Amino acid sequence: MNLSPPSLRSQLLTLLALLALLGLTIGLAFLPLGALNAALALAISAAKTLLVMMYFMRLREGHPFLRVVAAAGFAWLALLLAFSLADYLTRPLLPLP
Amino acid sequence: MSSTDPGIAAPSYLTAGEPGLAGWLLTHDHKRIGILYAVGITFFFLLGGIAAAMIRINLIEPQGALMSAETYNKAFTFHGVVMVWFFLIPSIPATLGNFLLPLMIGARDVAFPRLNLFSWYLYVGGGLFTIGALLLGGVDTGWTFYTPFSTLFSNSHVVLAVVGVFVVGFSSILTGLNFIVTVHTMRATGMHWFRLPLFVWAMYATSLVMVLATPVLAMTLSLIALERLLGVGIFDPALGGDPLLFQHFFWFYSHPAVYIMVLPAMGVVSELITCGVRRQIFGYRFMAWSMLAIAVIGFMVWGHHMFVAGQSMYAGIVFSILSFVVAVPSAIKVFNWVATLYKGTIDFHAPMLYALGFIGLFMLGGLTGLFLAATALDVNLTDTYFVVAHFHYIMVGGAVMAYLGGIHFWWPKITGRLYPEGPARFAAILMFFGFNLTFFPQYLLGYFGMPRRYHAYPEPFQWLNVLSSAGASILALAYVMPLCYLGWSLVRGRAAGPNPWRATGLEWTVPSPPPKENFALPPVVSEGPYRYRP
Ligand code: HEM
Ligand SMILES: [Cu+2]
Predict the structure, then answer these.
(1) Nearest to A86 among B249, B299, B318 (CB)
(2) Average pLDDT estimate for B458-467
């Protein structure tokens, strides 16, 4: 596949967006929001991941098949986490004797 | 169909190209790389076999005939590590797969020939680390490297061994990547997906597993090294870690990895059986889809290794059910092979004997897998010799039989020589008997309660252990035999001609051994595989 080299502009904008989100994460860590802290931090990191995948890994311009492959990698990571958590999260349901 | 003109004799891959050792060690030819792997895995099979022999000799006597407990631990660890990562996982894909995949799809080579050679060097490099760990005194964790023993307590060369496995893992990731891209982009004109030989489907499904699972192994092993060397708390509860997390990660790789070992075997057997009964495979599409189903569902059953490890009961139930589900596509395959054989005229040449042996042994291994997947039964059987028998029936009885069957079947293609059929049949039959005598008693031992991984055992278990060790010596003899007569055939064997089995498939349309470029002209395919009879 022949992609033109990425423009400096888009690279810089992505970098800035990532840094801004990083700042946001740090800032939010100082606000006492309870359980919302973790949820927001995770949401921000998900957004950062998406930015990296779309712009740095150039999946946005990539061939659809390439995107399927990347998505598969992610789905498999999700599988690992989901089934492992299925163990950890259901342990308290049946306390040890 | 064939577009190769036998009139033009292009030099074979064995004679073309750079002469001498450099011509082999720097080759980009998928066929030569296949041979390089074959040499490597034969070497490691011998090493692993020596460790196995030591184990079986030791277990002839209840108090242990040969080794101290520590040495015994190191022997079975070395046996497991070598056989799993340096023999079984690369065995069929890296040798037969490398050699045959491009030929079967009508391509000149794999998609990334240099990467292919690099994979072999990674394999050798990983092997050196592992042998290094052995020479420096060995590892005693078992091939599973369970924490907290491997990170907190073992005084052996865990890090070195783990590095070896890490490196060889990348060899298999890169091979998988190479095969996936090759199948996607390099099929000959007219070779659509459902005209691919089932061996190619098997390689494809295996490659998916290699690419999706092996990185998790690499990560897990790095975490072991991290905790051992730097004291980062990942698995150590005192540092906020969780030892069971290791088992989740390890089996997320290692259960799919058992399918890396058996899917290629299923591909080989499909080729051998269709040729041996000269028939179209029964249910081609089911065979192809069931391999993909095994590859995918195989990722969702890993918790069946952890039923008694402290995993939650609810997760155990889910993993148990999914383990039963993965047996369905496996059973489809067995039924379809049998249906292919049904009322056929079976030609009992050596490859066919291996294939029939595979079906029987795989069935016993798979069915006992279901015993173990039943949670209530597993409480009794886990960590006994029953488990050892289960996986050896599949990995040795199944995968090794299929590997040897494939080697015999394609030997004329690879070397251009015919092997002597008589000794080959004798070795195949001897192997079947030797195998069953070695491992069937282990089902009984496990059922009666003998735990695995001990150097000594109570007196009443002795007779079954002696039977098993006797079987092992027969099995060893049966493994040495092919080495002898195949070696002999290299020098004295009759010339094979392009297609001694009158098999269909593009690899049989080129001369034996094939020319360096495989096909004189790119082949054009207009039919599916196995055009033996309707
Ligand atoms: C029909 C599908 C299968 C099922 C349901 C199944 C089930 C199981 C279960 C439940 C265990 C855990 C036993 C225990 O530790 O208590 C196990 C162990 C094992 N199985 Fe299977 N199995 C299947 C197929 C396979 C295949 C195809 C292979 C290899 C090619 C394999 C290789 C192994 C290995 C290596 C272990 C033991 C690992 C260890 O603890 O060292 N299994 N199997
Ligand atoms: Cu398993």
Answers:
(1) B318
(2) 96
Which residues lie near ion ligand 2 (Cβ < 5 Å)? Answer: B 255
State whether the beta carbon of B394 lies less than 6 angstroms from ligand 1. Answer: yes
Position B20 scores a pLDDT of: 85
Q: How far apart are CA B177 and CA B220, in angstroms?
A: 21
CB B482 within 8 A of CB B424: yes
Binary contact (B315, A87; C-beta < 8 A): yes
> In the prediction, which pLDDT does B9 show?
66
Contact B482, B427 (CB under 8 A): yes
Beta-carbon separation of A80 and B314 below 8 A: no
Strand ranges in B333-391 using DSSP code E only, listed in sequence order: none
> CB of B391 closer than 6 A to ligand 1?
yes
Q: What is the mean pLDDT of residues B27-42?
A: 96
B212 to A80: CB separation less than 8 angstroms, yes or no: no
Peptide bond into B513 cis (omega under 30): yes
Residue B2 has pLDDT above 60, yes or no: no
Q: Which ligand 1 atom minimizes the distance to the CA of B307?
A: 16
CA distance B301 to B305: 9
Residue B6 confidence (pLDDT) above 70: no
| 3-state SS class at B530 | coil
Question: How many A from CA of B301 to the centre of ligand 1?
Answer: 10
What residue type is B39 in one-letter code?
V
Write down the H helix ranges in B395-461: 401-415, 421-448
Q: What is the ipTM of this complex?
A: 0.85
Please report, as a single letter, which amino acid is at residue A4: S
- Angle between helix B30-58 and helix B69-81 axes, rounded to 10 deg: 160
* Chain B residues within an 8 Å CB radius of A94: 312-314
The partner residue sitting opposite A93, judged by closest CB among B248, B303, B314, is B314
Domains present along chain B, CATH in parentheses: 21-509 (1.20.210.10)
The predicted-structure confidence for A43-54, as pLDDT tens digits, reads as follows: 999 999 999 988
pTM score? 0.92
Query: Cβ neighbours of residue B119 under 8 Å, at least 6 residues apart?
Result: B94, B170, B171, B172, B174, B175, B178
Kindly determine whether residue A94 and residue B249, on different chains, have CB atoms separated by under 8 Å.
Answer: no
**pLDDT of A1 higher than 60:** no
Backbone angles phi, psi at B189, to 5 degrees: -55, 130
Quote the distance between the C-alpha of residue B149 and its chain's center.
28
User: Which residue is listed with tokens 């004679």?
Assistant: B15
